[in-house]
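hey so i finally got around to running both of the ones u sent me last week. sorry it took forever, my laptop kept dying halfway thru and i had to restart like 3 times lol. anyway pasting them below in the order u listed, first the sequence line then the structure token line for each. didnt double check formatting much so if smth looks off just lmk and ill redo it

first one:
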Amino acid sequence: MNAIADSGKQELLIGQLIDLLRIGNAHASFDKAVQGVSMETVGTKIDKLPYTIWQLVEHIRIAQNDILEFSKGPDYQSPKWPDAYWPNEKAPADKATWQKSLAQIGEDREQFINLLRDDEKDIFAIFRHGTGQSLLKEGLVLADHNSYHTGEIIMIRRLLDDWK
């Protein structure tokens, strides 16, 4: 296969991964899942479920940032697993804190997408600082992780009659 064909396939793969990160394809996107959620719902804990929507959103923010920073290079130190990846608070302190978390998720997602689009990066190359990870693998982990927890957010919203 020639380099032009390989390049076209890589661009197609990157485009599809970006769509998965942004719009979810076969499932609702993270942005859709949190759109219009009431502040009351965000901090409500349902019996027998381990997390509130706030805790899930913060977990997504923390884990996504970890994946982003790890993917940027070897100088990053990951938070302590699992404690530093989950907030103790059931609800944000206020609406501004909620909005800041959502904004950070969007900004970090776009930064990761910029890494994928960087012509200097080979998405298949194994990171020297990892244990077999590549930019492609981290992108797939990010999409998988966020979609899993996005589904949980939607389920909680449905159980609380806050999903249209």
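and the second one:
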Amino acid sequence: MKRKAITSTELAAVGYDNDKEILEVEFKNGAVYQFQEVPEYEYSAMLKAPLPAKYFNTYIRNDYEFKRLENEE
């Protein structure tokens, strides 16, 4: 999944798969997580938020199932 770099204190990049409703989040420490069944509006709202990391922590982190991706590329 392609990710877009974003300006954030904690997040490096995010990507979204519309068909599968998967949000992929790359943290500045290099960890990558996929969040399942995330509606597109959450992804859009996070990108538009003045503080994307705060939006993520408030509305996404604890509300959707996730898995960490290992050994990327």
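quick thing i noticed on the 2nd:
The mean pLDDT is 95.
anyway thats it, ttyl
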